[in-house]
Amino acid sequence: MTSGTSDDADAARDRRALARECATAGIDAAHPESVIRDAVSLAGETLRIGDATFDLTDYESVVVLGGGNAASQVAAALEGVLGERLDGGIVVTDDPAETERVAVVRGDHPTPSERGVDATRRLLDEADGLDDSTLVLAAITGGASALLAAPAGDLTLADLRATTDALLASGATIDELNAVRKHLSELKGGRLAARLAPARVVTLLFSDVVGNDPSVIGSGPTVPDPTTYADALDVIEAYALDVPDAVRTHLERGAAGEHAETPTAGAAAFDSVSTHLLADNRTAVDAAAAVAEDAGYDALVLSTSVRGEAREAAKTHAAVAEEAIASGAPLSPPCVVLSGGECTVTVRGDGEGGPNLEFALSAALELPPGSALCAVDTDGIDGATHAAGAVVDSGTVTDRREARRALRVNDALPALDARGALVETGATGTNVNDLRVLVVDDSQSTKRNSG
Q1: pTM as predicted
Q2: How far is CA 60 from CA 138, 194, 243, 369, in A?
């Protein structure tokens, strides 16, 4: 076929559309309604969660407690399974779903808020009133670290907000960020489990962290914490964070033994706690791969653990597209290469953006003709923006100097918005980390686009 502008435009549009379609399928597959339907069932008085079963005749009541972006969706799905056997509970979220038995109370994400503090106090009050006749289904999803806001000791909400903002701007990993947050909280780092004891606690996890460490997901309110006050101080020092004096003093006193450490493995608080991972990044990536294969593309999962600076990781993905076109490795086009994980941004400017937006803009500067990439946060909110991410190709950037300037000042969103590249889903009802879909066409399409 001879070169033609309409053919090239159609091929580029199809690549971008497939990248979006794959990303959408990944988000849908990780929605609690789908996940709970597959993982949880009730037969008579036997509750099945994954491979575990629970005899509900052993308990006088069953309640749902928890928090996170997807917590209310989990609660609604559990109501659908348990019906009248569910007696109530409370979840804190920024994405409310309609429920009949479980109270849904609003908080805020990614920075804790006053209403989040009030909501968390309600949750803790309920937790303190439970005993060993209660089965607690603890729904912990991505976003719980910010939404479940309970300042420890004499700390204030302002202290938490300032520290969270400093951490989010520093480029610290989620493990490091949560090591600090756990030691500034009344319920994170296993402390909620201690308050729930002796109730039977079954933790249901939707992971938004690389590696699926339960102590990092939502800052691990119901699981043992391997980190210490000293570890939290190390993070503050490593990133030279400007945190309130009250925060530094609290951590220093904790490291000196003046505050009780978060409970560790073997503590009595966890004698009646079990943990079940119901969905993670692989859930979304595998579903996206299935859509690509149904469309006739070979699919490869590059990794679900991609991390580091977003704009640098994007260059690696562009290099994968270049290699596929040049040598057929790791796959020969037409192919789709997928990845997940959680990249970070070191904020140096005052623009508007997030990790996926910076990933997409950086990729747009590097992608070869014949390829397209969609990068989204599965919760529908990239950083503190209204966009989930963006879909880009080699034609997205028309002013390379301006695109590079936008990256320098962390202002990716308006640059991508001006090119119609944003992916705007609104709150998706789930959160299983970031998802990236790289589409590479066959060599003939590439030749036409570059001819």
Answers
A1: 0.91
A2: 17, 20, 45, 63
